[in-house]
Amino acid sequence: MKPVSRRTLDWIYSVLLLAIVLISWGYVIYASTVAARRQLRKKYPDRIFGTSENL
Question: Membrane-spanning residues where (predicted)?
Fold first, then answer.
């Protein structure tokens, strides 16, 4: 197997780190919206929040 240059390894590590950061932020945003919907549903049970859950 041909050796990989340092620049290529740095690029691969940077792409992997960016992917991990984007996935973790996506999870944080998703979890916070789920928690907010749950709190709104507790506080206002007679209202409809979101469309996909109440079809």
Answer: 12-33
